[in-house]
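Question: does this match?
>
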Amino acid sequence: MVVGIARMEFYLPGNGSLKGKRQRVKSLIHRLEARFKKLSVAEVGDQDLWQRAVIGVSTVASDQKVADRYLNQVLSFVEDLDGMELISAEIEFLSF
C-alpha cells in the first residue's frame, strides 16, 4: 500500500479579501473532489493570507506508479485554472 501526498502552493492575483480567497479555495476543493474520486483534499496552510493558498491532496494506491500518475493528473488539472496560479508543488510517498 502506498499513500501519495501532494502539497500545492497557489498565488491568487486580483484577490482582495479573505472572503474572496475562501470562495476560490472552496470552489477548487469541490472541483477536485468531483473530478478525482479517490482523493482527499484540504486547505493546509497560509489560511490568513488573502493572496496565497496551500492545498494538500492525498490518495491511496496499490503501488507508487499508480499514485504518482494520479497525483500528476491532479497537478495538470490545477495548472490550467483561471484566477489561481500554481507557484510550487511537492509530491511525497509513504509505503506500508
User: Anything to note?
Assistant: Strands lie at 2-11, 40-45, 52-61, 85-95. The two ends are 5 Å apart (CA to CA). The CA atoms of residues 80 and 90 lie 17 Å apart.
